[in-house]
Input
Amino acid sequence: DSNPPLPVELSSFTAKVLKSGGIKLDWRTEIEVSNYGFEIERSDINPKSEIQNHQFEKIGFVEGHGNSNSPKDYSFTDNTVEYGKYAYRLKQIDTDGQFEYLKVIEVDLGSPTKFELSQNYPNPFNPVTTIKFSLPESGNAKLKNFNLLGEQIAKTIKKKKNAGVHTINFNASELNSG
Output
C-alpha cells in the first residue's frame, strides 16, 4: 500500500452548549504528523440553504502538537453566539501550509423566548453604533431613536422581521452631536 499516512487522525469532534450561552467544541486526535494547528470556522445555518452552501468564517485558531503518536485533546469556546443554528468545522493545517477540512458538526441554540433590546455598542459612539434586538416571533418591528429630551430623532426600522436575533447599524452623522 503506497498511500502516505494521514497527517492527523481525528477520532472525535463534539459541541456542548454552555449555561453561559457559549458553545464549547472538543476534539481528539489519535496521531499527528506535522500538525501546525486547527482553524475553527463557523457558519450561520439558514434553513433554506444546503450545508455545501454555508459561508464559513474563521473564528479562532488552536495550535497543534506537531508530531505525536498518542491521543491529544483540544477545545475551543465560542462565546459570540446567541440564538439560532450554527455549523462548525475544523481546518487542519500542516507545518508546510497544506490543509484539509475535517468533520462538520451542527448546533441548534433555539430561538429567543422574549422581546429584548440589547445595549448598543460601541457606546458612546461617533457616528455609527450597532443595535441588537431579539424577537420571539415574527411580526412588525418598529425601532425609534429618542434624544435626552424624549423627542424622536430617528426611525431606524419599521418592517416585518422574522423571529430571532437582529443586528442593525445606526448612523447618526446627520444628527446633532449629543
The two ends are 73 Å apart (CA to CA).
